[in-house]
Write the structure tokens for this entry.
Amino acid sequence: MEITAWNWNRLCWYGNLNKQADKVMFACEKAVQLRPNYGWNHHNRGLARALTGDFPGAISDFQAYVEWTTNDKEKAKRQGWIDSLKKGENPFTEKLGLKPRPCRATFYLICK
């Protein structure tokens, strides 16, 4: 059975949403390792890094996402996050909309 970059990235994403970034960082790393040129892998690892206090790593990943995406609105949002992180501020709060979502059976490791 092959576990793809997409699978690792989804695990990373659901971990972030469920306040388990520290437990899924390995999945975030694996997604980027397997598909380094896909912006969403960097985006989700950047979020995990920010949530675990690694602001320099988060800035690097969000910058990779900004360079990858062609969506100007998305670029501006991530640039705002980068600017906040550079000031030592964590922009990720409940107001951002990172609300826990129902877990799927395939992500049982982070849903306990």
User: Anything to note?
Assistant: Helices lie at 5-17, 21-34, 39-51, 55-68, 72-86. The radius of gyration is 13 Å. Residues 5-110 form a domain with the Serine Threonine Protein Phosphatase 5, Tetratricopeptide repeat fold (CATH 1.25.40.10).
